[in-house]
Design goal:
The complex is a heterodimer of chains A (about 300) and B (about 260).
Chain A: E1 10-12, E2 15-17, E3 21-23, E4 45-47, E5 64-67, E6 70-73, H1 82-93, E7 99-104, H2 109-118, E8 126-130, H3 141-145, H4 147-159, E9 164-168, H5 176-185, E10 190-193, E11 197-200, E12 202-203, E13 208-209, E14 215-219, H6 224-235, E15 242-244, H7 251-260, E16 264-267, H8 269-273, H9 277-291
Parallel strand pairs in A: 3-4, 3-16, 4-7, 7-8, 8-9, 9-10, 10-15, 15-16
Antiparallel strand pairs in A: 1-2, 5-6, 6-14, 11-14, 12-13
Chain B: E1 3-14, E2 19-25, H1 27-32, E3 38-42, E4 53-61, E5 64-70, H2 74-80, E6 87-94, E7 106-112, H3 119-128, E8 132-139, H4 148-154, E9 157-162, E10 169-170, E11 188-192, H5 195-208, E12 212-215, E13 231-235, E14 241-245, E15 252-254
Parallel strand pairs in B: 7-8, 7-11, 8-9, 9-10, 11-12
Antiparallel strand pairs in B: 1-2, 1-6, 2-5, 3-4, 3-6, 4-5, 12-15, 13-14
The chains are: A alpha/beta (about 300), B alpha/beta (about 260).
Chain lengths: ~300, ~260
């Protein structure tokens, strides 16, 4: 290995990120919770826990079930609402020296607009618009499966914010590129994909569904091939940047997503297994670049399209 | 403050057909741990089993921890195969454990199955505070009994119950409270075990106005409070039902605040 300098910094929608490693919503709290385990400011960006207009109790327990190479969850967006977030969580997040994206979820198109406006404040670099949560009954996934609705939500958010807008897409659709193109047409600055895959588990002892919500979102290594395929497909159809996620557990997985077309990546389930995984992935990417004599990480983006 | 470290296995021995006792060298975690807390153990580097295993701290020993775990799935099976000097990924100490006050003179500990494990550190700590300890240990059968002798060292009185009557009193862990043991003589009751046991005990203690601390268990992913997966139903100070994280706000809750399923 040589000791040449490598550049891990990226431009994501006009924002300068020190590296492409972000945390995925719902798997890192507000980022502050990871401080005992690593220097959170070393990450490229943090995406906070999903925030809704009002306090949301979430789904009853059981909310989790481990599967082969994966994790099913039906948390149901438990959070204390946007006003609580602004008053109590954002000031703590502001102490971290990295970008923070607020992840928002609404029941109606109008709610997304209200959330965007309330969060158009200092300390927030951008919004990640969740139109893909499989675990809430109204809104959520519904907006992420119909191109016209996905576009409408995107337009509404863009109307009410000066921040960069990432729209997080659901993999639970027939043609992911149609949804991606719709949000690009709606003015999205970038796309996050994928959210979790709709799945379920049944307990053969009780003979009932394992999760309280019957269905849940599948994440973890098991979904990586699906996420990778969708990033690859969408990269061919849109010109806005893609943030890739879905089963990334290590630097190798992260690099594969970048080769498929992701400008940045998010770590989700991996944070739940190893709260310091972000730093390990950054180190691993740097080692890979040195081994391959790659000076600038930007040259990896989409390189598999040959 | 919790740590994510590599611990070293000191010993790993079988206590019965299902339960193992492991001692792990991890001085940083041991220095900050207290009874009722837990650790997350990474049992493999493979995709399956994916998640760490949350395991209660049985005892805090010089420079490390003692845990007791039941082999119930692939993660704990891998753990049972660990040998002296093997390395383990550990996160801890985690959660809010048991608390007590200087006024307590006599307490009752109730453990069911593998829920007996965290009572060891509590019994040891209360014994050093010269609190009189009475203990009930509940198991399904004689073959499941473990730690009876160890807990008897700290307990002035100890009863064992088995569901099939093959050892001690026939019945569940609350059976001795039906006449043999008077709940009103205790300043506090501490318990860990299966939910039906905790529910029955909470009802007895709440009715008699005896303070009772319950160590709850829920399916857990991160163990550090970020995923909100391990919540349990809690009645808050405004008498509203909320979902609180077992890994951060718990695992120990007051019997008055836990809402059990009907």
């Amino acid at each position: 290995m040589t000791d040449q300098q490598v550049d891990l910094s990226i431009d994501l929608m006009g924002l300068h990120l020190k590296n492409p490693v972000m945390t995925a919503s719902g798997t890192c709290g507000s980022g502050v919770e990871l401080l005992p385990y690593m220097d959170v400011s070393s990450l490229g960006a943090i995406v906070g826990k999903g925030t809704t207009l009002n306090n949301k109790k979430g789904n009853p327990p059981g909310r989790l079930m481990q599967t082969s190479g994966g994790l099913l969850n039906c948390i149901g967006l438990q959070n204390q609402g946007v006003d609580y977030f602004l008053a109590n969580i954002l000031p703590e997040v502001g102490k971290l020296d990295t970008h923070f994206f607020a992840n928002i979820s609404g029941n109606t198109v109008e709610e997304y607009g209200i959330l965007a406006e309330k969060l158009d404040v200092e300390g927030i670099s951008g919004l990640e618009v969740n139109i893909s949560c499989p675990n809430v009954k109204s809104g959520g996934l519904a907006f992420g499966t119909i191109p016209e609705d996905a576009r409408a939500v995107t337009e509404e958010v863009k109307k009410h914010t000066s921040k960069k807008v990432l729209v997080k897409l659901s993999p639970n659709v027939t043609d992911i590129t149609a949804i991606a193109q719709a949000v690009e047409d709606g003015g999205a600055d970038g796309i996050s994909l994928i959210n979790t895959l709709l799945g379920m588990a049944i307990d053969s002892e009780t003979m009932k569904a394992s999760l309280s919500n019957t269905f849940g979102g599948l994440s973890g290594p098991a979904v990586k091939p699906v996420g990778l395929r969708m990033v690859y497909q969408v990269y061919q159809k849109v010109s806005i940047p893609i943030v890739g996620l879905g089963g990334i557990m290590n630097a190798k997985d992260a690099i594969e997503y970048m080769l498929a077309g992701a400008t940045a990546i998010q770590l989700g389930t991996a944070n739940l297994v190893n709260p310091a995984v972000g730093l390990e992935v950054i180190d691993g990417i740097e080692r890979y670049m040195k081994q391959k004599n790659i000076k600038d990480i930007k040259s990896l983006v989409g390189k598999a399209h040959r | 403050m919790p740590y994510a470290i590599q611990g070293k296995v000191i010993s790993n021995v079988s206590l019965n057909h299902q339960v193992y006792r492991m001692e792990i060298e991890c001085p940083d975690i041991a220095n900050e741990a207290y009874p009722g807390q837990f650790i997350q153990i990474g049992s493999s580097n493979e995709a399956s089993p994916l998640l760490n295993r949350p395991i209660s701290i049985a005892r805090i020993i010089p420079g490390g921890l003692q845990i007791m775990y039941a082999v119930v799935g692939p993660g704990t099976l891998q753990l049972s195969r660990k040998q002296e000097e093997d390395k383990l990924k550990i996160i801890g100490p985690l959660g809010h454990g048991f608390s007590w006050t200087a006024e307590m003179k006599k307490v009752l500990l109730v453990g069911g199955g593998i829920g007996v494990a965290p009572l060891h550190a509590l019994a040891e700590a209360l014994y050093e505070e010269q609190v009189e300890i009475h203990t009930i240990l509940g198991f399904n059968s004689q073959k499941d009994v473990f730690s009876q002798e160890q807990l008897a060292k700290w307990s002035k009185k100890l009863w064992v119950t088995t569901m099939d009557g093959t050892c001690g009193i026939k019945g569940h862990a609350c059976t001795p409270l039906e006449g043999l043991v008077s709940i009103s003589e205790y300043d506090h009751v501490y318990a860990c075990g299966p939910k039906p046991m905790l529910k029955a005990l909470a009802k007895i203690c709440n009715t008699r106005h005896i303070p009772c601390s319950l160590s709850m268990e829920e399916y857990m992913a991160c163990g550090i409070g970020v995923c909100l997966g391990c919540v349990t139903r809690i009645l808050n100070q405004n008498q509203e039902e909320t979902y609180e994280r077992v890994c951060v706000e718990g695992p120990v809750f007051s019997s008055r605040e836990v809402v059990f399923d009907d």
